[in-house]
Amino acid sequence: MPGALYRVDAARGTAEQAARMAEEIRAGLTARLRRLPSKYFYDDRGSRLFEDITRLPEYYLTRTEERLLAGIAGDVVERVRPVELVELGSGAGRKIRLLLEAMAYAGLLERCLLMDINARFLAESARALAADFPGLEVRGVVGDFTGDLELLGRGGGRLAAFFASTVGNLHPDEVPPFLARVAEHLAPGDAFLVGVDLVKDVARLEAAYNDAAGVTAEFNRNILRVLNDRLGADFDPEAFEHVAFYDREHAWIEMRLRSLKLQRVRIPAARLDLAFEAGEEIRTEISCKYTRESFAALLPGSGLALDHWYTDPENLFALALLSRGSEGGVTR
Ligand code: SAH
Ligand code: AVI
Asked: Cβ-count burial of 2 within 10 angstroms (0-12 exposed, 13-18 middle, 19+ buried)?
């Protein structure tokens, strides 16, 4: 559209990204309990599969969060009065529109900044938002929110958002330092709106990650296809089965891939030649579930305080509005 304002930058060059990925995969697959970083689900196919997951009957998370956000967006904008919206892990970027509309309605909307690891989804979201919100300045940054936050620049008049309960895909030990890094890019009075999936009935949780149509299983196996495409690996994804269960002790859903036979896999770019026993598993994702108390316990020292806790009537999902105080001192 002529006149639409958007630009997309990349945090790192392709060669640097590939070298980092190879090192992370090598570290994960040579650990005692083999694991893969869940950010590698999201090539174009993985991002499309995630979109399919959001429409599954068992996957209550997305529709619950979207409905909740539709009801509270105006209140959030009134409390924070932001001129700029930042979304981490923006993906297909539908929810952000509810906040942008509320900001436009309040006459505040000026800028929007999206960060995601998937370049194509990011560019398409930036293009679509710039086309649909005339005058809005949209910037996309292809980057990793666990390592590239410095590209967000300084805060001021800023509301950051982290939807979908993607915070749950970080290990709880990683959350306080992550929040502290986000807080460094917020000014006093700025805020961070975080989607949090809540502890609930185990059957409902496990159904959301074991859908009858098998889409989550395909999403899970896709990480092996990503390794084949990017690192020259020779995984046979069909030789691994999808496993997802709720771990009550850690309050997280854990997804794994279980080898269906004794097999050997080579990953040239990561200098790996691996043997998998039949039944041997790789952890591919954790998805932490919180209560208001367990989430609030992550905040002290982060520079962020719980300003408001919004939930749906069934208490399935929460949006935590965290505010950046004026105390300045952020501990790491
Ligand atoms: N915000 C969207 C998408 C959530 S899915 C929604 O609410 O529906 C999680 C998103 O985070 C995906 O788009 C994925 O590409 C992105 N993502 C996952 N790990 C990431 C990381 N470490 N850095 C940047 N983006 C990441
Ligand atoms: C993106 N993230 C919050 C999703 C989740 O529920 O943890 C990813 C996902 N994994 C399996 N299904 C969806």
From this structure: exposed
Residue type present at position 172: P
Angle, alpha carbons 119-120-124 (nearest 5°) = 115
Measured CA to CA in angstroms, residue 318 lies from 98, 196, 233, 314 at distances of: 16, 5, 39, 10
Through-space distance between the first and last CA atoms of the chain, rounded to whole angstroms: 44
pLDDT tens profile 275-322: 999 999 999 999 999 999 999 999 999 999 999 999 999 999 999 999
Q: Report the alpha-carbon distance of residue 300 to residue 162 in Å, rounded.
A: 19
CA of 104 to the centre of ligand 2 (A): 30
Residue 117, ligand 2, Cβ within 6 A = no
pLDDT digits (tens, 9 = 90+) for 209-240: 999 999 999 999 999 999 999 999 999 999 99
pTM: 0.96
Is the Cβ atom of 209 under 6 angstroms away from ligand 2? yes
* Residue ranges in the chain modelled with pLDDT below 50: 1, 328-332
Identify the residues whose C-beta falls under 6 Å from ligand 1: 39, 42, 47, 50, 54, 62, 89-91, 95, 115-118, 121, 144-146, 163-164, 166
pLDDT at res. 3: 63
Chain centre distance of CA 248: 22
* DSSP 8-state code for residue 204: H
* 49 within ligand 2 shell (Cβ under 6 A): no
Does ligand 2 come within 6 angstroms of the Cβ of 216? Answer: yes
Shortest-distance Cα residue to atom 5 of ligand 2:
287
Q: From the CA of 215, which ligand is nearest? A: 2
Pairing state between β 5-10 and 304-311: unpaired
Using N-to-C axis directions, what is the helix angle for 215-231 and 44-54, rounded to 10°?
170
316 in ligand 2 pocket by Cβ < 6 Å? no
Q: Which ligand is nearest to the CA of 142?
A: 1
Q: Are 56 and 82 in contact (CB under 8 A)?
A: no
Nearest ligand 2 atom, CA 244: 11
